[in-house]
Amino acid sequence: MDYSFDNQVLELSDFTKLFGHTPGAVSLSLKIALVGYPATGKTTFLRKFTDQVTPPTHIPSSTLDLASEVIRMPNGLVVEVFLYDVPGQTQYIELPKLFANRCHGVIYFFAHHYAYSFNRLEYLLKFTEKYFLGNCYKLIVGNQFSNRENEIQPYEAYEFAGQKGLDYIKIDLVNDSKVVDQCIAYFISKFIKEES
Ligand SMILES: Nc1nc2c(ncn2[C@@H]2O[C@H](COP(=O)(O)OP(=O)(O)OP(=O)(O)O)[C@@H](O)[C@H]2O)c(=O)[nH]1
Ligand SMILES: [Mg+2]
Questions:
Q1: What CATH superfamily classification does 7-195 receive?
Q2: Which GO terms describe its molecular function (predicted)?
Q3: Is ligand 1 within 6 A of the CB of residue 41?
Q4: Which ligand has the shortest distance to the CA of 147?
Q5: Would you say residue 21 has pLDDT above 80?
Q6: What's the mean per-residue pLDDT of the chain?
């Protein structure tokens, strides 16, 4: 099993970023929160999405960070994506505030080389469930650091996600340049399918 996205997501991830002001062009706004234990790759994910940069060292995030991009999908739809980078250290303080407004998607991060970050997902899922307003799509993302040995194997994460009725994707933020766009396209595909 390769734990990658399906064809529809792969097609949708072939989107174009629109730079500059696009008044009136946006037909859908999506708010996606990045949550998970410290040092699992949330800020790296955000930086990859906005400026294709991989932070070289772990500087723990201390405040909620927000980035947005306007993208044109292959089908012409223009979507504004807001990514909220929730600091691992203060997530239980930040999340209730963040979820006071509707969030359309949550990415739950763990790192494959660090079992504790995976074991905490159960609690984090329960914690966030309490605050959702409306339907919120969820994705479990296992960040595989190519320079570290796995403590959690992909099949374990796949089984855990299955028990929760969720999808799991294995990513490598350093070596796979398309994976961030694919995660974003995953939420857009869910939203288009089930809410339109
Ligand atoms: N090798 C490798 N390193 C990665 C990957 N993703 C992130 N890193 C590194 O892991 C470290 C931590 O990543 P961050 O993105 O800062 O982690 P975070 O989840 O934002 O952590 P907090 O802000 O403390 O919650 C950084 O040094 C990144 O360069 C990956 O896919 N592969
Ligand atoms: Mg961070």
A1: P-loop containing nucleotide triphosphate hydrolases (3.40.50.300)
A2: GTP binding; GTPase activity
A3: yes
A4: 1
A5: no
A6: 93
